[in-house]
Amino acid sequence: MEQLRQLGEAVGSINALMAFEAELRINPRQCRLLADACAQALAAVTGEVRAQLRFEERGGAKWRAIEAPLRELHRAFRDAEGYVRQCLGAGGDGGGISWWGRAAAVAHGTECVEQHLHGILWCVAVAVDAVEAAAEIAGSDPGEIARRRTVLARKYDRDMVDPTLFQNAHGRVYLVSRELVARMDMAWKEDRWLLSQLLEDMKSPAAARPLTKAERRLADVLAAPRGKVHPASVLLSGVGEYSVRRRLGGRLKEAQWMGESFAVKHLAGDAAEAEVAVLASVAHPNVAHAAHCFRDEERKEYLVVMDQLMGKDLGSYVREVTCPRRRVPFPLLVAVDIMLQIARGMEHLHANGICHGELNPSNVLVKPRQQDGYVHVKVAGFERSGTVTAGAKASSAANNGNANANATGGSGGDTCIWYAPEVLEKVSGGDPAAGRTEKADVYSFGMICFELLTGKVPFEDNHLQGDKTSKNIRAGERPLFPFQAPKYLVALTKRCWHADPAQRPAFASVCRVLRYVKRFLVMNPDQQLGQAVAPPPAAPPADYLDIEAQLLRRVPSWQGGAAATRVADVPFQMFAYRAMEREKAATGAHAGASDSGSEGNSLCGEENGAGATTPDDASSTVSGGTVRSRPESSDGKKTPVRKTDGKAPPRQTGGSSQQKVKSASAVKPPTTGRKTLGVKPEVPARRPTSGHASD
To answer: What ranges does the record give for the region Disordered, renumbered to this chain (predicted)?
Structure first.
């Protein structure tokens, strides 16, 4: 009940701000959309609670099961309130420097839908799932409980796993009604048109306060489409005082302009024009992109005002928050949230035809958010190393450079540890740009996930450096996870760094899996500190990678990955995963406990070792704190493995170090020769579950 009261207060605060809607000059349509979405989310959740839970049991464990999802929804409401306050702060008649500064900061942003509505829609889906899970065990009448389970079974029937049917049947509850989805698609465009009309009125001779010449030039900057290059004089000697406050590393500086702090990137050289075009071709809350572009004709350089000022890079932040008493840098829920934000940023880049090529912790920027431990994440550094297949094209000279002048791969060591084996092959062959692909970016993402989950830089315990490390990576060597690492995240990470690029999932699939993993953690709060205690007490009731493989075959719109996932598609994705999870649980219940011995094939299955096995685990050896695949000879037999320095791998003695685990030969191998995406895992007999702690 306390969480519901807090949700009501948050929605009331947003409505109180929207009482001054007439004063909104920046993003009025998006603010109204956000306020309406919050109100509808509260109505949907309270309606589900009222229909499915008993009021007299409100102090019991069944109601406590929905507290964590409602806390996440409350956090999303507070973030939405902050966005409305920021836009309302840019109100007024446009007569002061602060108005121009705030308008320049928020006018081009897509945070309303891509960040805030994304969070609200995800939270509503999780909250509805939590209420349904509690309803299945609420009350004392067996007949009533049986009827509720029958209703839920019909709701999640496999025939309902269709986007159109889902929207028609459940669109209002999950905030994806046709009217609301249309507003999501049009709100940003409408606000851009309204801003252009406002600026035209301000420039009119009949305006109450005529604009100065400098203000007119700035109005042209705000009304121009993103990516248009303006004279540097508008920035350096226009409205407000422009001054550089400090260097942020590489070519990035923090500057004060019109009373607001901005990150400004200096670009020069033959590749500068292509880099500016790449930065202006994307716009996403999890991608560091250009908001306004300026060119100094005398110095032949560009000044790019970035969309948001970030604090530091991920590698530095991990080292900052890690200490002897806190070896794992983040709670599990925060780590998964960071992984999801990186994956969403990369999904947006790939959907726009951009391959990063230099994805590592030094090119992931973070900014701590509020007091809840969460951080805001942006992918950066793609403008030089990235290649564009549509739109602006980076030159080959740019492709051969690092993303930041001070980039060290996040560890101060070898940068090759972040590169995929096929990229290292191309580098050794003298063609570094040819190996930069979407699948290579997925490999680099897997290495970042390892650092987020363990607090250790990949291969940091390895005594080999430089070219020898590169050779070992190409030979199949990978970092070892500690024993207590969650197996379902270990499985996803290993799939991302798979030696065969074709086996690595696309970032759209990674995002769907991570959203559902995050749901599992929110609905099971005892799992959120699973890294710090060994072993975690439970795992998800189904293999999410297997569910993703089956849904890729069932839902045609998920195939190809040519376009990034729309925010309005998130509730259906969560619903489809839930339906498949229930179906698998029911199948396992009918199969009987005698079939549970094959559970070792599941990527989420319990294993006695470093985590769930993957295709490159079945035949591997442990070497120098890392795992290395054992190649096959021509006769099909496994050949002995020797490291590139000519020495045999050291024998494992079973220490207590976090990166030392049992040899892969000590882990029970899968019953099949090769684990492939899409093999159905066998599970012990049990009733249909929700992945909730109450089960």
So the answer is: 588-695
